[in-house]
Amino acid sequence: MRALNLDQLKALQAVAETGSFTAAARLLNLTQSAISVQIRELEERFGVRLIDRLGKKAFATEAGLEMIERSRRIGEEVEGITADMRRRREGWLGRVRLGAAPNILTYLLPPILKALRDTHPTLEISVRTGITRNLVGYVLRNELDLALVTLPVEEKGLVLAPWRSDPMVAVFPDSAGDVPRSVTPAFMAKWPLILDGRSQNDLMVRAWVRASGSEPKVAIELGQPEAIRNVVAVGLGASIVGPEVTQQAAIAGGVITRPLKPALIRVTALAQRRDKPEDAAMRIMREALMKIASG
Hints:
The protein is an alpha/beta fold. The protein contains eleven helices and twelve strands. A five-stranded mixed sheet has the order 4-3-5-12-6, with helices on both faces.
């Protein structure tokens, strides 16, 4: 069986929309006989009636309506292909889908994205946030091209390139007294903790505090690092966060920042599928991210 003819589908849709073979022919700049032939060929191909002629009006049958609905989706895809090819012809570099944790997106990515926009204005960038576990799933399902994830990640289907190594820090409300210069797990275990409850950072912090022999006392679980800082600032507890979170002022009050002893290092890596072909958009994004990799 030959492939469907897009012109035949357009003719069917035009007849149904205008209610007339003559009007459809005028709309598509064809003769009425050409429209009739295209509809007849479609009906003969599938063995069903697609158009009913009632008096001077033409109406799509149930089968015709179903075909028109599907043909509209096909038409949208064809238009998308046409637009993409036109953009590529005009210098469009493509689209890259990047994933990152909210704190990475908030504090570390904006200057990178700004630089990419300045140097590659035809590069289309889509950014999706999430915790490491979800970002890994998005990459494996090919819903993201690249993702910045917190190690460890045990997925053989990924290629992981270390991106940053950052010492995490303890934060306390500025009203806290007698906070040592370096904070130990035993000292942290005395405090009600404000954690995010889901991420790799959360797991790392809990394991670090347990080194004191005590179970962490989690008072509040929040999903946003900047929210954690603000909750600490108003005196509801203490937390351990990445250093980027401490770079901006809290909404109310202030915080005291201290290094950890022993140090707790958060390693962030750039992840992509091992079998993912790398196009120009991915290469440009990966090179931009790795260029500023530091910690």
